[in-house]
Amino acid sequence: MSQKEIFNTDKAPAAIGPYNQAIKADKTLYVSGQVPFNPETMELVTTGVADEAHQVLKNVGAILNHAGYDFKDVCKATIFLSSMDDFATVNEVYAQYFNENQPARECVAVKTLPRNVNVEISVIAWKA
Q1: Is the pTM of this model over 0.90?
Q2: CATH code of the domain occupying 4-126
């Protein structure tokens, strides 16, 4: 029988809308898009796109870990950028977290992101 399980942790920012940080369906974990909120203060990191990307991926990692997953379990990542001019910087930071068994992914530029941040990342993970 299929199960759906909700995951939320205080090690990542609380949802700023009507959603959960992650949902697990069977062996697949769907992590909601994360923006660069510091989970301790719920203030945005605004010291540059590299710092934003690090905070976003720390938030993703905290949610993955809370659900019993790791970056190596991620099968798919989606990166949203406010400007493709930030692609190389975000890609460099991203490579530090996904340094083996890199997932499939796409990276798209969008007109604006929540709270006018520069980067948002969501992931899908799977574990046997």
Answers
A1: yes
A2: 3.30.1330.40
